[in-house]
Backbone:
C-alpha cells in the first residue's frame, strides 16, 4: 500500500457529497490533463473519512483478495501496490482524525484481504522524487503501521530501517553523512550519495566488522547511530536537528542539544507514538529516517 496526499486545500466540507465531487474532479484531471484511461490511484479518502473507489474495478478486486487493479500513482511501484490518496496537503499539518481513522481501517482491511503485513505500508516518496504525502503524514507512517497491526490483533511491526545506496539523495543521505562524520569520516554532509560517501560507508563497515558493500542497511544503521540527549553535541546532534527541521519543526541546526532541540524531540516522539523522553535512541532514529 502506498499512501499519498492530494495536495489540494484542507477543506472544512466533510460531507459525502463533497467526497464524490472530489473523486470525480480527480478522475477528470487524470483523464483530461494526463491522458490516462481513468483515475490514477485505486482509492481516495476524504477529510470527512469517506472512502471512494478510484480506478475502475479496484473495489471489486479488493473484495476478491486475489488480484488488484494496476494503477498509475507511484511509478515503478504501480505494478505491485495499491494507491491510497488522502484529501488535503500535509506538509505542515496533520490530517483530520476522521480521515486518519478511515485510513487505519482501510489499510487493516486491505492487509487482511491480501495477507499483507502492515510493515508493507509506504509513502509515495519512498518510490519517487516527491514531497508526497507531505512531511507530516509521511512522519505518521510508523504510527499508522502500528495502529493497523493493532486493528488486526498483531504484534507491532518490527523496527525497519531504510536502505540507502549510491545514487540516493536527500535528508536521509545527509543523516548518514553526519553520522559517518561523527565516526571520523572526512566527508561533506551534502545529501548526495556519491563515490566518496560510498567509500566512507565501506571503510566504516570494515571497521565495524560488517559486510563492506557500501550499502546502508539495518546492520550499518545500528552501528552508526548513537544515543543523544540534552547536553549532547556534535555531528549526531546535527543529523537529528536537520531531520527535525526537514519534517517541519522549528529547530536550530547548530550541533548543540539544548532546550529547543529537547522540546522538538519530545514533540516528535509524542507525534509518532514513542515515549516522549527527549532521548534519541533507536526507535526515535528509525522514525526520523523513515
Residues:
Amino acid at each position: 500500500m502506498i499512501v499519498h496526499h492530494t495536495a489540494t486545500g484542507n477543506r472544512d466540507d466533510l460531507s459525502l457529497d463533497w467526497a464524490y465531487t472530489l473523486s470525480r474532479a480527480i478522475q477528470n484531471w487524470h483523464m483530461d490533463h494526463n491522458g490516462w484511461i481513468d483515475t490514477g490511484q485505486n482509492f481516495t479518502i476524504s477529510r470527512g473519512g469517506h472512502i471512494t473507489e478510484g480506478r475502475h474495478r479496484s473495489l471489486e478486486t479488493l473484495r476478491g483478495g486475489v488480484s488488484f487493479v494496476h494503477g498509475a500513482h507511484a511509478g515503478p511501484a504501480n505494478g505491485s501496490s495499491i494507491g491510497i490518496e488522502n484529501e488535503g496537503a500535509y506538509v505542515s499539518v496533520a490530517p483530520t482524525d476522521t480521515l486518519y481513522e478511515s485510513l487505519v481501517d482501510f489499510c487493516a482491511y486491505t492487509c487482511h484481504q491480501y495477507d499483507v503485513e502492515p510493515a508493507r505500508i509506504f509513502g509515495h516518496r519512498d518510490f519517487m522524487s516527491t514531497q508526497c504525502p507531505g512531511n507530516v503524514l509521511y512522519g505518521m507512517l510508523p504510527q499508522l503501521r502500528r495502529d493497523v497491526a493493532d486493528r488486526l490483533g498483531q504484534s507491532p511491526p518490527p523496527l525497519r530501517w531504510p536502505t540507502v545506496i549510491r545514487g540516493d539523495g536527500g535528508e536521509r543521505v545527509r543523516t548518514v553523512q553526519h553520522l559517518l562524520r561523527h565516526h571520523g569520516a572526512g566527508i561533506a554532509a551534502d545529501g548526495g550519495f556519491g563515490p566518496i560517501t560510498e567509500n566512507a560507508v565501506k571503510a566504516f563497515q570494515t571497521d565495524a566488522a560488517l559486510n563492506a558493500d557500501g550499502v546502508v542497511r539495518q546492520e550499518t544503521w545500528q552501528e552508526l547511530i548513537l544515543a543523544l540527549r540534552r547536553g549532547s553535541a556534535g555531528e549526531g546532534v546535527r543529523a537529528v536537528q536537520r531531520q527535525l527541521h526537514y519534517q517541519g519543526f522549528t529547530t536550530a541546526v547548530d550541533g548543540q542539544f539544548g532546550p529547543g532541540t529537547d522540546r522538538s524531540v519530545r514533540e516528535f516522539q509524542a507525534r509518532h507514538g514513542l515515549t516522549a523522553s527527549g532521548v534519541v535512541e533507536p526507535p526515535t532514529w528509525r522514525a526520523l529516517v523513515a
About this structure: The chain has two domains: 2-151, 171-289. The first helix runs from residue 16 to 32. The first strand starts at residue 2 and ends at 5.
